[in-house]
Amino acid sequence: MKKFSLWSVLLVLVLFVSACGGGGSSETGGDGISEDGILTIGETGLYSTKGGDFEVTINSVKKEAGGDGETALRGTYVVANVTITSRASESTNLEKVLPFKIFVDDIVNWNSVTAGKEFSFGKQISGEIAGGDSITGELIFDARESETYKILLGGKAEPNKLEWS
Fold first, then answer.
1. Is 152 in contact with 136 (CB distance < 8 Å)?
2. Distance (Å, rounded) from C-alpha 127 to C-alpha 132?
3. For residues 56 and 152, what is the distance between their CA atoms, to the nearest angstrom?
């Protein structure tokens, strides 16, 4: 009975801290765009690269089983609808500057879906984005089944990284 009580208290504590926004820091500029940190779905982060700066918003996330003949190798497709706005002065290839990764249970699960690949539920975002333009599309990950996922832009050790849980 004591084990059950301890687990119940820990679960309530974790839910409370999550609800209060604990667990990470975020530097937000005057325009409401986070420059680094842990974000929630719908929040915009600024990602800086050698090719320029990009505002990135994950608008929504869902799981898909796939249609006829579309089978996820790892169990499910995680589909994130994302809007990317370029602050760069020149056109940039999205795949070369935005290294999105998905973590399942804190273990990296590399995006195994090819840029531009089409599915019954969406198409993997790809291609060029001109300076000042915005593009909205799908980030599609082939991932293991889990209740929670973290989508990371940048490396865990990089100074500029954005993470959506």
1. no
2. 15
3. 11
Residue-wise pLDDT tens digits, 79-103: 999 999 999 999 999 887 788 889 9
Strand partners, 101: 152
Instruction: Specify whether the CB–CB gap between 98 and 55 falls below 8 A.
Output: no
Percent of the chain with pLDDT over 70: 76
Supply the pTM of this predicted model: 0.76
The token pair that represents 20 in the structure block: 């209060």
Q: Could you tell me the sign of the dihedral formed by the alpha carbons of 18, 23, 28, 33, in that order?
A: negative
96 φ/ψ sector (left φ>0, alpha ψ -120 to 50, else beta): alpha
**In one letter, which amino acid is 32?**
G
Burial of 42: CB neighbours in 10 Å, binned 0-12, 13-18, 19+: exposed
Q: How many residues does the chain have?
A: 165
Tell me which H or E stretch contains 36.
strand 34-39
